[in-house]
Structure formats: structure tokens, C-alpha cells
Amino acid sequence: MNHLTLASVIERRLLVNYRVEPEAAARLLPEGLRPQLVRGHAVAGICLLRLGSVRPVWAPAAVGLRSENAAHRIAVEWDGPEGVETGVYIPRRDTASLVNRWAGGRLFPGEHGHADFEVSESANAVRVAFATRDGETRVDVAAEIADSLEDSGLFADLDEASAFFRGGAKGWSATRTGLRLDGMELDTDAWHIEPGRITSARSSFFEDPDRFPPGTAELDSVLVMRQVPVRWLPLPGRAAGPARLSA
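Now predict its structure.
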């Protein structure tokens, strides 16, 4: 299937990061992917994303759509034709947009579940909460913009965190069939990320003891992107071998 290349503006993106025991992360990954480690930890988290002006690259921004979206992600690496490559594995995507739910996996890569979002934000603070209609996932995160990245066990400073996430631009999404992964790459010449400070965070995904036994997933940090123009490039899908534990 030929998927569309999309353009949009990341109006707000919260990257909520967890330090995860490598074995716990590996159990959630399909065959062929392995956790990308930072200081001995796997890196996982939630991307809380508001997109604006979403449209095919050939269409004017004025016809673009706006949507609230969420993706649970695990930083991964795999063996490519020219060596080790890096990106993220996305066990589930959710959205408030009917268009995204219908078009995801059809017109562009990435199947989406249905979620209801509650958002409040100001220049220096944001809260995003959502609950999926299937009842499987609930998230509630509040954060403030900070002057520097502090108290992270993963990253020494903002520059290190920014380089890590910029290098993980390729995303592999689980599909309903379980037979393949959809692929998409984030492309931008305007990459910019800000440090944040978490004021509260709850996640049914990371607090599930069957998925993450106590002590294997610890909240680490939050990063913020705002008003960044991007393109979303479709990648050829890849076969999805079985995960050791269903996500």
C-alpha cells in the first residue's frame, strides 16, 4: 500500500520518559527489535501530541486538521543493512480524531484507538489526560516548563536528551493483525526541545504490575516540543515476530 507523506505542526508534544529494566522492556518487543539502552536502562514513555495543520504535503496548511493524540513508545534498535539503526516501537496509538482513526493504517501508517482527552495549558504549564474507549489505558500528566533538565537518571543534560530523541525518528507501530509493523519517520529542519518538570503523572500502562513488575519502570523526566513544523514520511512495513509478552 502506498501511504501519504503528511505535513503538520507539532503544536505541543510532551515526551514523558520512564527508566525501565531492560528485561521488562524486551518482553514487550516483537522479534527483531531490542531495547536501546541508556546508562544501563531501557527508555520508554508516552508521547502526548497535539498536531495542527495536518494534511498531505502537497496541500495548503489552511485545509489541515487538528487533533489530540497519544503514543506509548519504547526506544529500540535493530540490525539494518548498514549497521545498527535506532527508533521507537509503539505498542499502541490513540487519538480523539475520527479522521485519524479511519485513515491510520489506510492512508498513512499507524492504526489508532479511540480516546477522550482533557487538556489545559498555559505558557508555562500543561496537563494532558486521556482515557481510551476500550477501557485499557488511562493517563494523566501535568508538567511545567523548566530552565534545565534536572534529576534525570537517563540524560546528563538537555543536549544529551535532545540528541537521543532526534536520533529515534523512525517509529514502528503495532497493527491489529499482529503480522506486520507500520513504519513512519519524523522529519524536520526545525528541531527544538525544552526541559520540563513533572508535577504529577499517572499511567495505567506503566503502573500495570503484569507488564512492569514493581521497581522495573520508574518515572524519569519530561521534555516539551512546541510549534515545530514537521513532515511524516512513510516507511516500508516490516514483519512483526511475536512479543514475549503481549503489550
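The radius of gyration is 17 Å.
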